[in-house]
Amino acid sequence: MSILICDADGELWFTRQEELGLDYISMPYSINGEIYYYDLGKNTDLKKFYDDMRKGAAPTTMALNPAEYVDILEKYFSQGEDLLYVSFSHKMSGTFNQLQTALNELKDKYPDRKCTIFDTKSISVGAGLQMEYAGMLKNAGASDEEILEKLGEFTHKVAMYFIVDDLVYLKRGGRLSAFAAFAGNLLGLKPILTTDAEGGLNAIEKIAGKRKAIKKIAEKVAETLTDTSMPVYIMDADAPSDGELLASLIAEKRPDAKIVHQIVGPVIGAHCGPGTVGVVFVANERPIPLAK
Predict the structure, then answer these.
(1) pTM of the shown model
(2) DSSP secondary structure string, 164-218?
């Protein structure tokens, strides 16, 4: 059986990661000229991170380089361990090209070792919920093959909805055109966003006004939540009142929901910006984006 690892872009909070005994890869970000590696909230000052963004700091994210991946992988391979890596969406980052370069480099030195990668085709806790599920399966004694099979079914049921406070952050990250960001902010439009079946970012609906958008998201959760044995994750980027509003609306409509509320980490926050709020839960299927 392989060692199960995940990454910090799945944002599974460090206490839950430690409960499940999961190893994880810290993902890098830069702010105010300093490079950091996210630790799933253990020591990161997330309030300061978002305060700095509001003051004009423009954080960036980056791919790990092949040498960094070699260091990470060799720690396991040198001990005769294989890896099962449950990762965030490959469509969202070029970091997996660097990972493959590192794996190719290590192939001759460790010909019998392998790293099996499962692409959750999601980001933030959309990926983290799948990481949590994999950890639960492993701790229940599931084999690698059983984990991959069950994840292959589970991934299509992980629903994510979120809205951002300022569309300029999506524009900076190349997720939205400059005109769409300007027009959306001018008109007060709040696209409700999701990760699609391929792991890309898309809108499912456009609502005028943040409060109305939050209410619409709560309605969608109430209508489509199917598995209440798994958490309903409320995520906010230093917008606790919005997160609490969403949580209360969901709890009112679905008192059977097991709600967990946490803050968005800096790697994801660099792309969505302060004020973002969203939810991740298990439904019958992933949301279907608007036709482009």
Answers:
(1) 0.92
(2) -S-THHHHHTTSS-HHHHHHHHHHTEEEEEEE-TTS-EEEEEEEESHHHHHHHHH
